[in-house]
Amino acid sequence: MQITTSTLQNMAKQGQKIAMLTCYDATFSSVLDEAGVDVMLIGDSLGMVMQGHTSTIPVTLEEVAYHTRCVARKATRSLILADLPFGAYLESPQQAMASSVTLMSAGAHMVKLEGGEHMLETVRFLVARGVPVCGHIGLTPQSVNTLGGYKVQGKTDAAAERLKAEALALEAAGVSMIVLEAVPAKLAAEITASLTTAATIGIGAGVDCHGQVLVLQDMLDIYPGKKARFVKNFMKGQSSIQAAVKAYVNAVKDASFPTAENSF
Ligand code: KIV
Ligand code: NA
């Protein structure tokens, strides 16, 4: 059965963990859909893993739409979430709406955008017009040039309070989910407990989020270079990619991933 926005909110309410992975093409779409991945994210991380860039900044709306179409053709159960890329939503709610129409026409069921306070008006605008929205706070890679690198966020009391307030404000503005990236596990747990309708999805945010996400090429351990602390190699001990993806889904569902060694 097709997973919808309300399925995810019910899972969060009932304490059933949500398993999300990034996906950019039709073959992996079939594999992930079959393995029981609840949400497939066409992340702007495709800038790195598909295109070889060093950041998500150069990714265009048409490129995300292209990969969304590839994934959507083979998905039967997973909810399809597509990233609004850097250049395609920050100017105005109207620009964000037009870009969301492009992504939803390509097959997305929900769009994701980065940022807290400055995104509230846009979230309200989109949700009122039929676009389910996922927020993304903590380490927001599109802001790498102002954050000064890919670093853990919310480490000071003031920064933690700011993140808590942002999560609540995003929920009040109407987001269905919020990705929490690279924040201390304790803070992510507090944020998760404070929300009533929105589901939290952690990446480097501890086990107490309502769900988890990783970049596919990271969890298969095929992306070259240094791995982030929050990445676990799910290929280890498995004889196929299908089995590795199933192992990830199972580990998210039974909360055996992430452990403290994959958290901050
Ligand atoms: O683009 C991406 O892959 C993401 C996830 C890491 C959450 O935004
Ligand atoms: Na992203």
UniProtKB/TrEMBL annotation:
Cross-referenced InterPro entries: Pantoate_hydroxy_MeTrfase, Pyrv/PenolPyrv_kinase-like_dom, Pyrv_kinase-like_dom_sf
Enzyme Commission code(s) on record: 2.1.2.11
Keywords, in A-Z order: Cytoplasm, Magnesium, Metal-binding, Pantothenate biosynthesis, Transferase
Pathway: Cofactor biosynthesis; (R)-pantothenate biosynthesis; (R)-pantoate from 3-methyl-2-oxobutanoate: step 1/2
Uppermost EC category: transferase
Catalytic activity: (6R)-5,10-methylene-5,6,7,8-tetrahydrofolate + 3-methyl-2-oxobutanoate + H2O = 2-dehydropantoate + (6S)-5,6,7,8-tetrahydrofolate
GO MF assignments: 3-methyl-2-oxobutanoate hydroxymethyltransferase activity
Residues binding 3-methyl-2-oxobutanoate: 44-45, 83, 112
Binding sites annotated in the UniProt record for Mg(2+): 44, 83, 114
Compartments (UniProt record): Cytoplasm
Catalytic residue list: 181 (proton acceptor)
Description of how the protein assembles with itself and partners: Homodecamer; pentamer of dimers.
Similarity comment: Belongs to the PanB family.
Record's function text: Catalyzes the reversible reaction in which hydroxymethyl group from 5,10-methylenetetrahydrofolate is transferred onto alpha-ketoisovalerate to form ketopantoate.
NCBIfam families with a match to the protein in the record: panB, PRK00311.1
UniProt-recorded name of the protein: 3-methyl-2-oxobutanoate hydroxymethyltransferase
Gene name in the database record: panB
